[in-house]
Structure prediction request, 547 residues.
Amino acid sequence: IRGHFPHKEIEHYSSLHPKARHLQFSYGTAGFRTLGVVLDSVLFRVGVLAALRSKKLDGKTVGVMITASHNPEEDNGVKLVDPRGEMLEAAWEAHATNLANASNEDFSDVLYDFVRDSRIDMSKPSRVVYARDTRPTGESLVKALEDGLKAIGAEGRDAGITTTPVLHYLVRAINTKGTKEEYGEDSEDGYFQKMSEAFRKLVSGRPRIPPLVIDCANGVGAPIAKKLAEYLGETLPFVLYNTDTTTPGGLNNNCGADYVKTQQKPPPSLNGVLQKGQRACSLDGDADRLMYYFIDERNYFLMLDGDKIATLVAAFIVDLVRLAGLAEQVKVGVVQTAYANGASTKYLADKLPVRCTPTGVKHLHHAAEQFNIGVYFEANGHGTVLFSPSTLEKLEKHEPSTPAQSTALRHLNNLTQLVNQTVGDALSDMLLVEVVLAHKAYSAIEWNSLYTDLPNRLVKVHVPNRNAFKTEDAERRLVSPRGLQKKIDDLCKRYDGGRSFVRPSGTEDVVRVYAEAVLRSQADELAFRVAGMVYDEAGGDPHRRPK
Ligand code: G16
Prediction:
């Protein structure tokens, strides 16, 4: 090993954060996620790992976010953020899992072997910036993380209570400071400044935007949205709901983006609030997901989910690229997952290349990087737009030959500033949606009418062991348990437009079942029949079979 391995410090601090023998942890879709009260040892070890990751990357700043996002309040979690603000490199996820599961006696040795095998130079500097959401377990988990940093002697920067997207922004801003790729000032203020300035430019000269209702899920999105309102002033009036971050049990409870998406209805707290046609949106517990919706003339609830956002945004960007005279040089593509509504994929595929990846921002993000401009969204409202470095350069240098080209180019350049390109960001995405609606002079009704969603249903199935379910083909097919996929295929054939798939969740202890069909009743029936098959196959208790 190069440099000094701090055996003593590691043993000392590790003894303050012992791992319970019977617990096993795994770095899943979005890091470690489980009950907050059992995560102390994990946070300590993640602190150690983040510090080592920074050393490995020559002292660049690495991020740590403590959140369980859309999960219930008693859950918590932690994920690592790489220097450009993107998710941790996949190869290190396995290291994270290994370290989290090492026994107390072995931890120091396992760590030593890891440092040696990964050729980490212990004499390098180490910097970590971290933040947490509003969960009650967050405060003590931060302390455990800080002990991990101390054990390695890393320099820590506490970004306090903020959203996941702000933390990702900070990581990129810190690491690009003073370089050609400077991302913005490395503070919350810098984040708001950058976004709100771009927004003002993009909507200037457009008619006044009618007020938007925002459901903050009783989470950290509430204080951050409040601050954003100060920066936006009258340019985007909004009314905040579900902003109570102190009453126990409120977080994501009967509110938030996940509630709206899975229940397919507005949070009860908005009953009687929404006027017909008025735009409303829900954030999730760490404000990285966004779900729009409205009530129509007949009092029906209509949801504008991640697919609707992707189509709206992608079509707008394609138009701008064409108007700027760059259609030949800048190719726009869209990335979705198996959860994308079949109607959205059909609508998009007529206009653009569309790719499908497994669930998880990290997968979509990497696929989107393959395009000059990659628009990625999960149906659950998680997504963003990526402009490749060469595209950014083109947009900056391109000489427009007409006033119309010049305007389109200016809009595109402002979009690169408006969008949080590090990760899905509910507030930045919200501003993006509002820009497109303002430019197109669309109401929610017109936006919704771009295409009609196939009725769909998402069901959670509680099974004894979700790891028995394994998938292939971007999670669209099951390979295990054997034979189950064939049964699902046979069943789907009996429904008009029937499609269904099954996958284990990476953030909750459940198996997820998705189904869609031409008729609402059929989509529901298909979902529950597949859920029943999953339950039986997994040996679930017959009395608790999904209904
Ligand atoms: C996380 C991931 C998302 C994923 C979601 C659900 O979101 O970042 O990419 O769609 O979990 O994943 P799964 O179906 O595997 O449970 P969040 O908002 O909870 O961080």
Remarks:
- The chain has a mean pLDDT of 97.
